[in-house]
Amino acid sequence: MRKLVTRIALLAAAVAVVAAAVVLYVRRADPYTVTAYFQDAGQVVKGNQVRIAGATIGTVSAVRLADDGQAAIELKIQDGDFDPLHEGTRAVLRNSALASVAGRIIVLEPGPNDAPKIRSGGTIAATDTRSATDIDQVLNAIDAKGRKYLQTLVRGGATALDGAEGSTNQALERLNPALAQTRRTVEELRSDEPALQRIVASSAAVADTLASNTDDLEQGLESAAVTLRATAAEREALRATIQRAPDFVRRANTTFASTRALLDESQPLLRELRPVAPRLARTLRLAEPLTREATPLLRDVRASLPALTDVLQKSPGFAGRVVPALSELTRTLQGYAPIVTEVRRYAPDLTSGLLTGFGGKAGGYYDANGHYARIAPVLNSAGLPDLLRPVLGGLVDVLGPLLGTGLTVPQTGQTNRCPGGGAQTHPDGSNPNPAGHDGRCDVTQVPLGGSNPVTPAAK
Fold first, then answer.
1. What is residue 292's predicted lDDT score, i.e. its pLDDT?
2. pTM of the model
3. Residue 28 pLDDT grade (very low, low, confident, very high; cuts 50, 70, 90)
4. Domain for residue 18, yes or no?
5. What does the DSSP 8-state code read for residue 442?
6. Residue that terminates a domain, selected from 188, 209, 226
7. What b/e readout covers 284-321, taking b as 16+ CB neighbours within 10 angstroms?
8. Domain that holds residue 427
9. How many domains does the structure of the chain reveal?
């Protein structure tokens, strides 16, 4: 019985070993594959190498067209160190040589090891792949004139580098790190395409602005050139200014230090002025038009200052002559004051005599149609013709005072009229007025027609 158990155990162990061997064989028979999607397969064929850092780790096992029109390239990874790859891995399609037509290689840039693993049969999206650029695409992008220049450059380069192959190779070897860094910089820019697009758009806007203001830009450059030429012409003065600058800076530091203490002292004043600041701002805004209008005035005043200065310089002598004359005139006018007082009372008579004697009488009237004038003839016996004077003269002299028509006889002996006696007596008795004459004037001497020899003023 014991022997039977032993045999069964040995048989089970053998079966387990065989199963493990089968699993290992099957796993080894099923290689690790990843499908990378490219916008353009770029003449990749089955069997092209897959490399990492120059070392071959696998081959291209299949190339097919995906449903979305992209190129699906299946990569078979044979190096166990890269089984599996991690997310973030990038695939770049490159040419193995410039003269190669179908000699393409796929270079992998592994993602970080702490990123999720890409299982066998997984994919690398098109956002993490880059197709190859053929030399004919570059040449086709150059026009005929550019190709001619390129040919001249190549021939000239061959002539220039003839005999300097060794140093050129050393320069290219040293240039390789710089080119690699440039490639990384370009890839970083490409990784943030929105920011790069914003930079390009902003640059385009700046270029458009500069292009639309070429005249201003040229004028600015010309002004800058004039400024630089003027600065160059004053090199000695500029050098002297720079030499004096340290002393000036030291003095400025002392001044600023004193100013700091002054500012500390002025803080209470500024706090007190803070409530007044809005009103002062409004006042300044209101005063702005005045200051703008005052600018031409101030300009004219400044132009007048020389003449004003000359006048002021001559004023003392002029004042020395004018002041005594004004004093004499004052004393003279004081002597004329009583005379002017007496004459002033006869101003209405003088005005009435001028208007009546030279202009006749006229009065303004208004009705529903507006303004109209009334004209009345003035006739007296002195103005009658010689033939009618004996007949109508007496009638005029009688009817004139009664009717008040202005048909009057010339008055004589009117030598002692009171003030206001040059016109008919007003119904309120305000004229003539003997006040100030102590009864020495005759209130009855007034023009005929409506005269009242006894007035309230006379009483």
1. 80
2. 0.31
3. very low
4. no
5. B
6. 226
7. eeeeeeeeeeeeeeeeeeeeeeeeeeeeeeeeeeeeee
8. 376-409+416-459
9. 3
Q: 6: which residues sit within 8 A by CB, 6+ positions away?
A: none
The reported pLDDT for the residue numbered 278 is 81
Q: Extract the tokens encoding 324.
A: 């005594």
Query: Quick check: 124 and 118 in contact, CB under 8 A?
Result: yes
Q: Are residues 39 and 134 in the same domain?
A: yes
Q: Which of 204, 226, 248 is the last residue of a domain?
A: 226
Q: Cβ neighbours of residue 120 under 8 Å, at least 6 residues apart?
A: 30, 32, 33, 34, 84
| Residue 34 pLDDT greater than 90, yes or no | yes
Question: What does the alpha-carbon distance between residue 443 and residue 420 come to, in Å, rounded to a whole number?
Answer: 9
Which residues are registered as beta bridge partners of 92?
107, 130
The confidence score (pLDDT) of residue 50 equals 92
- Which tokens go with 34? 């990843």
d(CA 255, CA 240): 22
* DSSP of 203-227: HHHHHHHHHHTHHHHHHHHHHHHHH
Whole-angstrom Cα Rg for the chain: 62
Quick check: is 194 in a domain? yes
Chain position carrying tokens 């020899």? 453
Average pLDDT over residues 199-225: 82
Tell me if 422 is assigned to some domain: yes
